[in-house]
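Per your request, structure below.
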């Protein structure tokens, strides 16, 4: 049974940085594509970034050049490094395993202006 647990969210001022983590268990992590999504208040959940391998990543236009998705297969952990944060980055951030469709519980990110 796949389980994903996010951490690292918090309150940060605009221009600041946060690093989110997603610890995975119950699957062969290294073989699976992983994704980060976010959901802002009153809006639909949207894809932020996707990673298949170290050289196969996809980013939403709104975060390109500011966010970096990465993974440590030895630790079964997915990361999202978020720099130059903006108030519009505020929301709940979720990780998802593509193969199983399993979601984590989410971690709140709030960026103050």
């Amino acid at each position: 049974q796949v389980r994903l647990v996010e951490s690292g969210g918090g309150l940060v001022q605009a221009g600041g940085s946060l690093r989110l983590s997603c610890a995975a268990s119950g699957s062969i992590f290294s073989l699976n594509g992983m994704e980060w999504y976010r959901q802002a208040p009153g809006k639909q959940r949207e894809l932020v970034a996707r990673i298949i391998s170290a050289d196969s990543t996809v980013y939403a236009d709104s975060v390109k050049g500011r966010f970096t998705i990465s993974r440590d297969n030895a630790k079964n952990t997915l990361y999202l490094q978020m720099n130059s944060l903006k108030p519009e980055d505020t929301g709940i951030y979720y990780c998802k395993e593509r193969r199983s469709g399993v979601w984590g519980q989410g971690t709140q990110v709030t960026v103050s202006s």
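The mean pLDDT is 94.

Regards,
D.
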